[in-house]
Every structure is written in structure tokens, then in C-alpha cells.
Amino acid sequence: MPQPLINYHFGTKLKLWQASVDFLFDELIKDLAIFSSSLRDLEPVDALKVTLRRHVEFVARRPEFFMIAIVEGREDTERLAYLMERYINPLNKTMEELILAAQKKGQIKNAPVLNLLEIMIGATIIFFGPSAAFRFSEAFLTEGAGPSVRHADVVVDVLFHGLAL
Questions:
Q1: What integer pLDDT is reported at residue 165 of this predicted model?
Q2: Residues 6+ apart with CB under 8 A from 32
Q3: Where are the domains of the chain?
């Protein structure tokens, strides 16, 4: 797109980037809004499990979300600040609140919240996030939603029941 058109419609390249990211991340915001109200009646540990499952489903459907965060996270820029403030911090805050509530009720270990958050988020994104091409592989296409459901099951089982037999 020629620079004069960017200036005319958006003012700056940054505002064009923000509009593009807002368009892409609108799905995440809608997903979070839809299911967040349904968490009210759940115990914190159950709400945490549902949140982790939703996160796996979203990343499996939209691995580019993770890739944008990784690319932008390499440098401290206005774009990273925008992503953090508008999308990543709200998700982290929700997870932190659920972790603290579950700890307060004795439903999960009283480990440092930041460590638990990083483990949980990392476990949900690593299977689908690193390669946007994964979702186009033959195995993914033939299984449909299978890989994301199976991965969510494994994440929740291992995080909440451990690896020990």
C-alpha cells in the first residue's frame, strides 16, 4: 500500500498495524467475553481448567496469535506495549486471579503465581504455536479438532494431576 494511502486512512504505519492486530485479535476478545461470564458459577480450579482448554482451542485455531506475540516480544516497542496492554495482560490477569483464588481455597499448590502462569500458558501454546504450518499438515486436517482436544486433555491432566502414577 502506498505511504500516502496509509497516511490518509490510518495516519501512521503504527495505526495501520494496530488496526490489523485489532481485526485479528477481535476473535480472541469475543471468545473471552463469551465464556468469562459462564465461569462465575464454577470453582476456581474448574474455571482455570476451562480457561486453559479455551486457550488451547484458540491457539490451535489461530497459531498466528502466538507468532505475532513472539515476533513483537523480541524488542521493547510501542507495538509490544500495545499487544501487552490490550490483549496479553488481560488474559494473564484473568489467569492470575483464578490461580490465586484456587490457591486460597486450597485447590492447587501454593507455588509462585508467575511460575504457574508461565507453565500453564507455555503448555497450552507450545504444541500449536511454534508452527502455523502445523495446522495444515495431513494429520491435523484428517483429525479435525482432535489434536486440540487431545492436547487440552493432556495439559489439564498433567497440570492438575501430575505425571506420577
A1: 64
A2: 54, 90, 91, 94
A3: 3-161
